[in-house]
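Here is a tokenized protein:
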Amino acid sequence: MTYNSTLLRLLDERGYIHQVTDAEGLDALAAKQIVPAYVGFDATAPSLHVGNLVSIMLLRRLQQAGHKPVVLMGGGTTRIGDPTGKDEVRKMLTEETIEANIASIRTAFERFLTFGDGPTDAVMVNNHDWLGKLGYIEMLQMVGTHFTVNRMLSFDSVKLRLEREQPMTFLEFNYMILQGYDFRHLCQAQGVRLQMGGSDQWGNIVNGVELTRRMDATEVFGLTTPLITKADGSKMGKSVSGAVWLNEEQLPAYDYWQFWRNCDDRDVGRFLRLFTDLPLDEISRLEALEGGEINDAKVVLANEATKLCRGEEAARASEATARETFAAGGLGEDLPTIEIGSDGIRLGAACTALGFTASNGEAKRKIAEGAVKLDDDVMNDPGLLITVAAGESRKLSLGKKKHGVLKGV
């Protein structure tokens, strides 16, 4: 359909829209007033990862279109765990850990959003502030009457777990009720009219829309993005070495930059639309490049995505490191580095310590394949003891794209 509001036109042009509960109604609302909208994030780690980035960019686009982003941190729901897409019960976290994770996660949001007290400034809220105050009987009386077990059993998050004969605790079974109540509470307290999220959250979002309508006769809306996978079908949040974290403490800027630089040729245009602020006409030009020139577009993607998440200086330094490492054959300053004492380190252990491999077993396999080089010479013995003189450095490489520094101390 053709949208009248700046918000839905922007989201549509850049490929964010998968499902909307009432597209015409939301379009009309966004065309006439500021729409406060939220996305929920659980605080299970000190950092979100690239798999969460499309939802963060949704909030950024919302603010760019003149509306108000509400970042909902699940201080309460993290204590339960979203069963969606999970085969196992989530590990319980302490209150102190959850609070520390929320504080750490906020630092990433501050790069993507403008926070403050203005009508379109972003705010961050914690659902433990209201869920933690609800009595169990009160919750059952007020919210439980609007959910049927028949309907709850029909949701994929429940069906898949039961079909696989994986246990689902009663605690997890309540997650969808609490998420629905979040929407209703935020509508009352913050004037929120829209919940956004990934396509796997559609059922939970619809629950919140229906609960708010039943309890308060208020019309609210839901919008989901398509499932974001890479061209090879793998999950967006993962790389060969594990999760691609947004925070510097969990992943160095150079590795973050390299994740984008190493993307599949087929993903360049889509990722530029979703994860950068480049104008659409410039993106069209870049994605039309062919042959070796597509690598220039990948560098632009890496620079723009890194600039948003880590800052302009981190993007420049990462590009310079890559140029020096690959073009000049040197050792760039931002390459992952480990310090080596007088006892040295075994080759397989060095691969794992630098994050090239997830285990020493994987390192052995890569070495056996001839994929590991020390100072550009192929190595074939995982037990090789590498020594580095104090003040000197040696380069360790896995394939053509992963490089690290062994620094003698």
The chain has three domains: 6-225, 252-327, 337-408. The first strand starts at residue 19 and ends at 20.
